[in-house]
Amino acid sequence: MATLQASGLTLAYDKVTIVDELSLDIPTGQVSIVVGANGCGKSTLLRALSRLLKPAGGQVLLDGADIHSKPAKEVAKTLGLLPQSPTAPDGITSRELISRGRYPHQGLFKRFSAQDEAAVARAMELTGTTDLADRPVDELSGGQRQRVWIAMALAQETDLLLLDEPTTFLDVAHQLEVLDVVSELNRTRGITVVIVLHDLNLAARYADYLVALKGGKIYAAGHPTEVVTEKTVKAVFGMPSRVIPDPVAGTPLVLPIGRQRVLRTESVLAANGIFRGDAPVNEPQALAEGLEQDSAVIEEEVQAITRTVAEADPNLARPAREHLQTLAFQTTVLRSQELSPSFRRLTVGGADLEDFGTNSHPLDMRIKLLLPPEAGFGANGEIASLRPDALTSPAEQLGWYQRWLAIDPAQRGYMRTYTVRAFREAGHRDNLGATPELDIDFVLHGKVVDGKLQGGPATEFGDRARPGDPLLLLGPNKALTDDSYGGIEFRPGAATRIVLAGDETAAPAICAILESLPANITGHALIEVPETTDILGTTTRSGISVQWLTRGSAEHGSLLRDAVRSVVAIPGAGVVQTNADPEDIDVDESILWETGQAQSAPFYAWIAGEAGTVKELRRYLVRDAGIDRKQVAFMGYWRRGKQEN
Ligand SMILES: Cc1cc2nc3c(=O)[nH]c(=O)nc-3n(C[C@H](O)[C@H](O)[C@H](O)COP(=O)(O)OP(=O)(O)OC[C@H]3O[C@@H](n4cnc5c(N)ncnc54)[C@H](O)[C@@H]3O)c2cc1C
Which of 638, 639, 642 has the most ligand 1 atoms within 8 A of CB, as the residue to mutate? Predict the structure, then answer.
């Protein structure tokens, strides 16, 4: 049986320490569950334990050896990870997805063997997914889909299974279904399981070993009966509570105490056989005394029960940050900087951004800007209800986009897609403000008429915005997303040769990606911009050669097409030539957007910009150069002559 330990582990993003000198022995053959408040470092810890994140200090030891000294494929034979909210390629069936778990066991040219087939069949049987084998994953219910993902991790046949919030977004019945499958696997096959979970009561029920994290350190660890105490809950979650025996499982059950006044708490608890303290408080006299002594606490208890009910009820309102993956962030323009004749950088900041991000490098993270009509603020009621603190229910949010779209644009304004060029937490060495801030680089397209730029609502906003102007944007909720977030498309898999190609609208994404690439990556970045003066500085530690192509009077995209042809020869690097035309997409009618998670191939291309140009590059790369489409992201960022919504 494999062993897993963290030894003096320090984990940091952008020099901000998330986990601080943490040491932990994962008990072999048991279910360990890590709990803690949002942002305490639990998902970060899991990423490091699974070799996805390199420590800033200390080590993760797999079978006694530094996990980073082992090749990824070797680690994958011992340790399986199910990340938070994984996304499956469109149209993939359950069986195909589960079969991908066999990848670490396959050699370079090896085909799917009888052994692989048997492992997939076993994984499906154990997770009860055999009947779902031929169904497309995107047609399954949340619980079924999660079981399929677990089956994929199981097909890997590892001794260790790590699961990051496997129950997020599932209703209570499906949460139990998933945790039951995992604990049964642990009992029947003896695999060691580590789970990050936000639900303390479920964690107490299913854990053999519970780890409570606070501020990146272990606050308490041990059997749930030792760890789940009122003191620990207060210290770790900042929440007063009562802890009583769970009437179903006998494990500790936490009843949170809220702040609002709710009457008859004690009698409600008593009616349910639940008593405070050691002695049953079931006599009117004792109840009256209790009320007198501690009325504030008592009043709060039923509120806690109400809250628990609220969490299970899609119609009850709670802060958006607790249940929405995409939030609206109210920001203020802090700086407007002319980078070149065609590029304007707006830096925006605000307290809402404390909930922004994926806890990782933004890469090509897209966000939506809500541009007010020039005459004033847009009618953003629909959007305002997505702000982190807004009290809203999941049911209320269904269909918000359609409702927003139906409002007259002259009132609601416009929504446009842009890239996070950079994000800096408060405290970052380059952020002198008290709140997080982010940079957005606007391409200023259009014509100047009477001294005023006329392009589209976004470019005009980028041009006219001044410090102090408000800007509402939509982006990821840090508490509920990680770097598997759907708004990031740069997914090179194991590729070490990379081509990044795009026009000026893709320049912010390409520059941000370049900043994140490690030294072992080689390839080309090709960026077509209007003028020589638009060549912006880029920094990269990678071996990628960066070429800025200046368009001048040439046709839009023509230089980019030629440059891609010259760096991706026919047939493309290490690929099978197909000679197949990709199916035609009318870029005037639909969006050209083909992306996916690249696999093990050594080559990956990321292409973005004007849709007509991207379409031509797609034809060249897929048909002529024969590149596997899983190894390419094609993204029509905008279409000549067409407005976004
Ligand atoms: C994922 C993603 C990330 C993006 N990131 C960025 C970014 O970081 N920076 C950035 O500047 N853009 C970016 N874009 C492109 C941007 O969303 C579009 O250019 C958008 O149409 C601009 O909105 P607008 O209101 O200015 O123009 P619209 O109202 O949408 O269009 C008005 C007219 O302008 C034309 N037009 C639009 N964009 C351009 C252009 N760049 N050059 C010439 N004509 C144009 C349209 O064809 C239309 O005729 C991104 C797009 C996507 C999908």
Answer: 638
